[in-house]
Specification:
Number of helices: 7
Helix content: 55-70%
CATH topology of the largest domain: Heat Shock Protein 90
Largest sheet: 5 strands, mixed
Strand order of the largest sheet: 2-4-5-7-6
Oligomer: single chain
Order of helices and strands: HHHEHEEHEEHHEE
Mean pLDDT: 75
């Protein structure tokens, strides 16, 4: 993208210099000695130079826009294909895990029923731990199955935003523990206004993408305490804003306008595809919402604004 802009600037400068030079030569009378054929050639060159910007805007600009839309559609298609493959694989894994869980749970209940009275107080507590652990595993597998599919064809439904955030955090818990990042949820904004209408899986993917980006940003910070703050706020009476903030190094100002472009990434090779924020923006826009970023030396905050408390009709996301 930067190279194309540089080439355009060089072309425009060259055209301006050429036209100015031709005008100077005409004014100074340096072209009066040319023959009719030579003057026709000069006139043709001037005509081409004059028409070049017009042709550029009439042909090349629409072509580049179409090419950009094609790249975005290809990115969406690749993402949907990956999600479909992930969904099939996840379903198989979850099915096997659930079989093991069922066996453990069944035997735990058998043990509980067959315990002599004198051992019940001693053995019941470990069995309670087993049951709680099994329930946590089942919660994780339910979340895996739910979030591993695209969800683009799901109908709009009422969504309990606090419950959705809780489920997303279940998926992020292990990464939070292993990376030493505190994930804090500000519940001050939790009230009836936190009911959204949309596609549950897609909006969950938006949160997961933003939280994962925050984890990635915190890898590069020298902060002793690393934290991600998730806040919910009411906006203008009929909107709700979800903020995902981190105390990482921030995004340079010259890159903030580019981060939502397809295939643009600041991550090292192999760690980012450049599709996450582009897809996130499209999902938000398809829910008649908006997303923007605020960033500085003390961290980055992604703000997602969505309508709430009333059914909305899905729209095609625009680039």
């Amino acid at each position: 993208m930067e190279k194309r802009v540089a080439y355009r600037s060089m072309l425009v400068i060259a055209i301006i210099v050429f036209v100015v030079e031709m005008i100077n030569m005409l004014i100074l009378g340096q072209l009066t000695h040319l023959s009719g054929i030579e003057m026709a050639i000069v006139d043709s060159i001037l005509l081409v130079v004059t028409l070049t910007p017009i042709l550029y805007h009439a042909i090349l600009v629409p072509f580049e826009r179409g090419h950009q839309l094609l790249l975005e559609e290809r990115a969406k298609s690749e993402f949907a294909s990956k999600m479909a493959s992930l969904g099939e694989m996840t379903s198989g894994i979850v099915h096997e895990i659930n079989n093991f869980i069922s066996t453990i749970l069944l035997n735990s209940r058998k043990i509980r029923r067959s315990l002599p009275e004198d051992l019940q107080s001693e053995i019941t507590k470990p069995l309670d731990v087993i049951d709680r652990t099994i329930n946590q595993i089942m919660e994780v597998t339910r979340s895996m199955r739910k979030f591993s599919r695209g969800g683009a064809d799901d109908p709009f439904e009422a969504i309990d935003l606090p419950a959705m955030i809780s489920e997303v955090l279940v998926m992020c818990h292990e990464r939070s523990m292993s990376s030493g990042v505190d994930v804090i949820v500000n519940k001050d904004g939790y009230d009836d206004s936190c009911i959204l209408y949309g596609r549950y899986v897609e909006l969950s993917q938006v949160l997961i993408n933003l939280i994962n980006n925050a984890f990635d940003a915190l890898r590069e910070t020298s902060q002793t305490i690393k934290k991600i703050l998730i806040e919910v706020k009411s906006r203008d009476g009929d909107k709700v804003e979800v903020q995902v903030c981190d105390n990482g190094p921030g995004i340079p100002k010259d890159l903030q306008a580019k981060i939502f472009q397809p295939f643009f990434t600041t991550k090292p090779i192999g760690l980012g595809t450049g599709l996450g924020l582009s897809i996130t923006r499209k999902i938000v826009e398809s829910h008649k919402g908006a997303i923007h970023v605020e960033s500085g030396p003390e961290g980055t905050c992604f703000c997602v604004t969505l309508p709430h408390n009333r059914p909305i009709q899905a729209v095609e996301a625009t680039g």
